[in-house]
Amino acid sequence: MVTVTSAEPGSPTVPSVARLRGAIEQTAGSVGFIDNAVLLDRYQSNLRDVLQDAPGVLAQSRYGQEMRLSIRGSGIARGYHVRGIELLQDGIPTNLADGSGDFYEIDPMGLRATEIYKGGNALGLGASTLGGAINFVTPTAYTALAPNIVQVSGGSNGSVQTSGQVSRVLGKLDLLANFTASHADGWRAHERGNYGQFNGNLGYRLGPSAETRFYLGIYATNQLLPGTLTLSDALGDPRKAGAGVVAQDQARDMRVQRLANRTSVTLAGVRLDVDSWLIHTDMFHPIFQVLTTEGDTWGVAPRLRSDWQLGGRRNELTLGARLVGGSYAARRFVNVGGAAGAPTLDARQKALNVETYLENRSFVTPQLAVVAGLKALRHERRYTDRSSGASDEARYSGVNPKIGLLWTAREQVQVFANLTRSQDVPDFTDLTQTFGAASRFTPLASQRAWTAEVGTRGAQGPLRWDLTYYRSRVRGEMLQYTVDPTVPASTFNAGRTLHQGIELGATLTLARNLLAANAGDRLELSQLWNWSDFRFQGDPQHGNNAIPGLPRNVLRTALTYARADGFYVTPTLDWVPGGAWVDYANTLKTPSHALLGLKFGAALRDDLSFYLDLRNLTNRRYVADFAPVLDAGAAPASTFYPGIGRSIYAGMRYQF
User: Fold this and answer.
1) CATH code where residue 596 lies
2) What's the structural domain count of the chain?
3) Which pTM value belongs to this model?
């Protein structure tokens, strides 16, 4: 939990960080907010470095910027990329039209704030998946920390990262450009990665409460894949590459261009936002075969927000719609040492989504708000195998309601409860499954769930907290298992499953002014605890077994001493006490582990600062992530990603 003391003015399309925080904390449910300015004192190689302190968010590194991202068990069995969470940048989706997505278009060094909406609490953004949504907010010239910022960092495993940002306000016009270039040789063999990420925006003030803003994103990724290992190799020889990876020169190279616009107008207490976007994606991905995908995603999303008095009581209404489509050429070739050989598949994938949603918050009393909402959707997936002439399609529709309460018990203390229905629609990775060397369309049902949650957040004296318990009853959960470490996993619909957990984040100020009266220094203890219990319920094959993928308990403890002059030191402990089930048969767990870290830094002067970030100080060998298998007891599973060993990073920031 981070206290924001932002004074920047913001603008009609992008409010100030303080206003963003104030708005999200009026949600009748579990949410999270990060002021990314406080993360500039650490090495940010991927989004795990952004999200690791957020309660309820499980982010596990695999290699480069690839990781597992899960909220409340979303994508628990997905061995790659993202499932069940909608990723947005500046409130505009970055996922493809079929719902799939990855992390390479989000630059950790180019963010101003991060909003986390868990589960059905993302309805106000139009999302209705089990995991909810994460909105990454980039700075504008109004919200940037300084007109010019230069950052340089690097360290272990050949890591080098440079980032530059320039912003200006020129009358009614404002502009900002941010570029980050990252290189890492990688801790493991065959893990070298190069990333180039550009984000820019241009705003024009149409009037006192009207503005249009254009966003341009250009992203280039060249990432070698180190592959997966057996458990014995992950712990005994973790730096080597997986079997066959080097011979096939496995990699994932991406070229993405994104153009988006938001136009906002506010009149008489009614705000209208109209978002539109176009994303072009070009992927070259040699694995068991060479996979290529090229295509475009487009979308239009109007949203109206109104605040008025109803019977003498305050009432807030959000009404929105989204029309999203995409068309992609998906081809496969024989992998000849990482090059494309003879073609094996020539397919076309088309997706079209039509969605409408509303959310209304009515204050029964000044302290108690009742929230009700509804989302209706219709999604289409069309697949044509031009190699064989076969054509298939699937349609999904649903209505997902929400009801909740938000009670402000006292100033800075809130209690909330809600009940929501979510629906996850299969993406083309689910629908086009690999059997041997062939790919076939495999119809799947959508995943549906009812989630109840109750929680509290606030501050009282030296204590700040965020605590939530949730319980989801899921039907048709889309689960996956690895057939072979070189082949994308198969997906199936489970029967009834249960997801429940506790999400806790707390910070206690132990002491202030230790050096002298009014010295301004402080000592704070922070604790994160995620307890997750995901299991089948009376499954014909798996009984009541736990669903593999995520550890039951994840804890992160940090003790920070900070002075008013900018000096700080923070030892950290990341502890996974029980490991995670690897297989659906529940025969194997990953070992427990505890990782020690240390960060410290200082401001050399008002505009120049530096940091040191030391990780895994005891050089502990551990499993960072894995892809689930059916039965690990039947044969040794080569499915594990080893964690990075002892490493040190340093960085400097100059802003003027």
Assistant:
1) 2.40.170.20
2) 1
3) 0.95
